[in-house]
Amino acid sequence: MHADEQPDQYWFARHAKSIIFLICVLTVVGVYEALSIPVAVFPTTNFPRIIIGVDNGVMPIEQMEVVITRPLEEAVRIVPGLEDVRSVTSRGSAEIDLFFNWNVDMLETLQLVDAAVSRVQSSLPPTAQIQTHRLDFSSFPIIGYSLTSETVSQKDLWELATYDIKPRLNRLPGVASVLIQGGQRPEFHVVVDPARMLRAKTSIADLVAAVNRTNIIDSPGLINRNHQLFLSLVTGQVHSAEDIGAIVVKHVDNVPVRIQDIGTVQPSVEPVYTVVSANGKPALLLSVNRQPDSNTVEVAGEVHQEMAAIGPTLPAGVEMRPFYDQSNIVQESIASGRDAIGIGLFLAGLIIWLFLRDWGTAVMTGLVVPVTMVVTFIAMKMLGQSFNLMTLGGLAAAVGLVIDDKIAVVYRIEL
Q: Potential cystine with 340: which of 290, 292, 324, 396 (Cβ 3.0-4.6 Å)?
């Protein structure tokens, strides 16, 4: 057996420099690729599941099932790869879960589901708001902030978060969406007088149609002037209670009937069905979702930096605090894996030195493991993997296997 091994030993001896050069190149490439590998809590997984969410005010459950849920369920059954459809219908809302085969392309399937929904949407109530999205780990927020104040109203906090903070966060690279929860959304309430409506021969349907018909921004087309084309724009948006009161509902005997003639318009807030609090006080929450291929730590750092810049511009009395940060879990996992690898290398080198009394062999043990890990990063990049709880745990566990193989090789050489 010793004679059979000699040709291999001679081959490695003749090409030692080339092998060392190849290892050095792979190490450099691995370090470079490691800097571009995404960092997240969980691996990127395309779950074969798409969720259709419907919001339609306070429509009764029985009507929701017949008018919305069932037509959507029938429309999406033509999508290839669909295995199961489950739905939950409640007053004014419905959630339809579509389960597909694991072999289908979920990005293409999502487009097919959107197409199926759009074909049937014209037959659904115009007030129904439909959203479709596929389920993956990027659907969960990576960071959250709370806004609380004892001097600023919840309505003003909502406007501050919606029109000032949210647009600035949406512009950050890697941010997919910003969800606002809590607060009070401002709106106008029209309180009609039945007697005046009867005298004006109007109805609630006439009033709603007048508001929808008037409160618009539209373009009637292009205007030709001085051999140039200009896009014309007509705006009828209302911004105050007076603007709403001046809307003409209909004409009775050639006399315009305005909303202020049949009722009163007063500023108010949207009904609140969910109570949101932070630190024992009413609060408004901002939750940030990342892009699927983005780096959780980098995105969280950008959000923290932007929120730190926003802090001094907030009104007096508004307190902003982070209540959730997924990047802390990732950073702690990376630190834990790094410590486990470092301690394992030190103990392995110490044991080898104690038994063999050879510093060279102990040092080589300390070099083999990092090089092996770095080369592994190349494979992770090619396979589209990320640094997450599972891959970091696997790397830490693999250290022991690599050290065992190293000890076996050293023992064989010594023999």
A: 396
Check if the beta carbon of residue 179 is closer than 8 Å to that of residue 289. Answer: yes
Model confidence, pTM: 0.69
| pLDDT tens across the length of the chain (415 residues) | 444 455 555 666 676 777 778 888 888 888 887 777 777 777 777 788 899 999 888 888 888 899 999 999 999 998 998 989 999 998 888 999 999 988 888 888 898 999 999 988 888 888 888 888 887 766 678 899 999 988 888 889 999 999 999 999 999 988 888 989 888 888 889 998 888 888 888 888 888 888 888 878 877 788 888 888 888 888 878 888 888 888 888 888 888 889 888 889 988 888 877 888 888 888 899 999 888 777 888 888 899 999 999 989 888 888 999 988 888 887 887 787 777 777 777 777 777 777 766 676 667 767 777 788 888 888 888 877 777 777 777 777 777 777 777 666 666 665 5
